[in-house]
Every structure is written in C-alpha cells, then in structure tokens.
Amino acid sequence: MMRWTHAVMLAAAVLAVGCSSSGKKELPPAELTKFSEEVHLDKQWSRSIGEGQGETWNQLELASDGDSLFAADIEGLVVAMNRETGKVLWEQELDKPVSGGVGAGYGLVLVGTLKGQVIALDSATGEVKWQAPVGSEVLSAPANNGDVVVVQTQDDHVFGLDAATGERRWSYESTPAVLTLRGTSAPVVTNRLAVAGLSSGKVVALDIQRGIPVWEQRVAMAKGRSELERMVDIDGGLLLSGGTLYVVTYQGQLAALDLQSGRPLWQRDASSYVGVAAGFGNVYVSEASGTVEGIDERSTSALWSNDALARRQLSSPVAFSSNVAVGDLEGYLHLLSQVDGRFVGRERVDSDGLRARPLVVGDWLYAYGNSGKLVAYTLR
C-alpha cells in the first residue's frame, strides 16, 4: 500500500523547525552564540562522495570495518577508503537510488534502495555479491552478524537474509501507523536476536534464525486527536550498550530496556527522530526541538540541558572523547562537554547541512555532509 512518504517528509521538516498546531508564525532556527573554544577539530583529510544525501531527507550514514571507511550517495555510488589517509580503495557505481546504508562487517558492505532491494558488496573489492528484493523502500542501514543480514523496510517489515547468498530466511510483518515520519531505525543484531523499532512506538526482538518474536515492548503510546499528534515513530538508531538497549521515540519516551527480556529499566518523556548516544555513564539525546540533554543512566535525571540549538534540525549525537558531537541544518558540527553540556568546540563542515549521524572510531570523527562532503577530524 502506498503511504504518504513525501508528504510526511515535508511534515518532518516543518515539525523539526518548530511549526506549531496553534497557527503561530514559525520561528527561525536559533542563532549561534559565541563562546571560547576549549578544543579544536583538526581536519586530517576530506573528499566528495558523489551527490551526497540528495533532497529526499535521506540519512545515509558512514560505516567502518578495520582500517576501511565506507560511504554511499543517493545515486548509488559506494566508496571504500582508508580511514586514516582518505585514499580510495575502490568505488562501485550501482546506478540505483540508495536510501539505506551503509552497513559493514564480516566481509560485506550493505546498502538498501528506494526500489526495495538490499545489495551486498565484497568489502575488499567492491564486487556485488548479491541483490535481494524486500518489497518496500529501505531507509536505514542493513545489519549483519556474519550469518544473517537483517533489514527493516519503511512499511515496518523486517527481513532476515542469508549473508552468503541473500536468500530470504524469514520475514516479520507489523502493521505500520497511519501516518509516519520518513525513516526507520536501523536494526540491532546479536548472535541470538534481531531488534527493530517500529512506527507504532514498539520495539520487537526476533529470533535471528527464525524471525519469531522473542519479546515485544511498547515504548510510547499514541496520544492526541490528529494523526500528526499521534505519531510516535522510532526513527532514531537503537543503541546497545552492554545488556541495555536504549531507544527514543518521536513525541513519546526515551527508554532503557533489558536486551534479553525487553523489560523496561527506566523511561522518561522525550521526543526525537534521530537517536541517542552514551558515554561517561550518561545517555545523550538530540530532541526534536533542538535541545540536547545529558541524562544519568542510573537515576534517569537530567544532568544538563542545552537549548541554544533550538530548531536547528540536529543530527543524532555521538560521544567523542569527553565531548558530545552533533550536526545541524547549516552544516555546523558542535562539540558539547559531556560533563555539563557547555559548548567547547565548533566547526562548519558542509553549508548544505549535516543530517547524518557523525561516525566516531577511536580518536577519529568522520562527518558526512548533505552535499556529499566527507571530512575526517581529530582533536587538538
């Protein structure tokens, strides 16, 4: 069934910049405030990745495996680079509109397309190893445990594919919400489970060999009279830390769940469509409003809250050294202290914006801008 993906893409943009249902004039993004920089981002290398994210609200993310870094653009260009030098190892032109990716590991590089396909490339050569149909557009990176590739589609279906051949092993169907934001969270996989966040505000854990539900947990309940008010999508990436799964919904809750049972460990009100990060015993969330919060994962109390980036359409945060890094619609990468949330550094990466979550590997941070500009940074 066709769903209102393009209309909802526009709705997401409107909601992100703070348009209210009361008819009040839309407020502009907050102006950036000045501060004394305490840390500096040193650019190590940069390059352009084709057409970048495109114009359809994609969030094509970077992936790494060993010394290699992988990126894709909306037109189907997939590039492998040495992550410390930026040297191109291989390029593959798929000539298909890529909308979900990149996933990497166990010798595979994985992307999904707007045409409802999953494509697996050899991580060493870029050779296409297999292609598999999944029926609907793929808007997040496929995940892989070396045996099973797990992919979620826009219509809340989850598929388990054979990692060697792409043959379908199982599928799980869920009824999606009537109206949703454009996007899905990327599945999380272990040797036993495939975990997915759904547009209904539920998280489901499936047996990774058979696709049978092991547990389901509702994180948020739809509230309000209109379908817009009732959206509780889980679009941001799920975060697995030890045995705890962190998940945040739009217009709903931030929750910590026990991975094995799905039992809620704690919950608190939140609204985000981009996901969470963890570090220093805290959880960090970019709210849909533009507020960034640091939350003590033991007490669930907010340690700090920074609202200076209001309505700036923030990316998912990442922990980087002792900082939290987050991108915005004007392409700035902001560094906030993990201790108290104050600004400690800022760098403009791409004037077209930073929608995709930055990638942190050790002491390196990689930012992939909307226009296709990819920059590698270290801290000074």
UniProtKB/TrEMBL annotation:
PROSITE patterns, alphabetized: PROKAR_LIPOPROTEIN
Pfam families: PQQ_2
Plastid among keywords: no
Record's subcellular location: Cell outer membrane
UniProt keyword terms in alphabetical order: Cell outer membrane, Lipoprotein, Membrane, Palmitate, Signal
Annotated ranges, domain Pyrrolo-quinoline quinone repeat: 75-306
Family matches, as PANTHER family: CELL SURFACE PROTEIN (PTHR34512), OUTER MEMBRANE PROTEIN ASSEMBLY FACTOR BAMB (PTHR34512:SF30)
Membrane topology: Lipid-anchor
Quaternary organization: Part of the Bam complex.
InterPro entries: BamB, PQQ_b-propeller_rpt, PQQ_rpt_dom
The UniProt record lists the keyword Isomerase: no
Function summary: Part of the outer membrane protein assembly complex, which is involved in assembly and insertion of beta-barrel proteins into the outer membrane.
Matching SMART domains: PQQ
Family: Belongs to the BamB family.
Protein's recorded name: Outer membrane protein assembly factor BamB
